[in-house]
Design goal:
Length: about 70
Amino acid sequence: MNVKKTPTSVNPQTCIGCGTCTLVYPEGYEMEGVLACPKKNAMNKEKHTEAIKECPVDAISWSESDEPLTP
């Protein structure tokens, strides 16, 4: 059984809950209360990269535990 995880993580200590990531990649991020949360199986590398770049507080990063995405 191949279960995919999210390739990014959001630092809850840094996230300000602005929702920019959900606007950039709504299929990849959702708000849980006042924090952003990556959705599982959202594997669009370009969109994740855009969300990482657009985050105003650099709260999103690539997860080191997951395998890299292929385009």
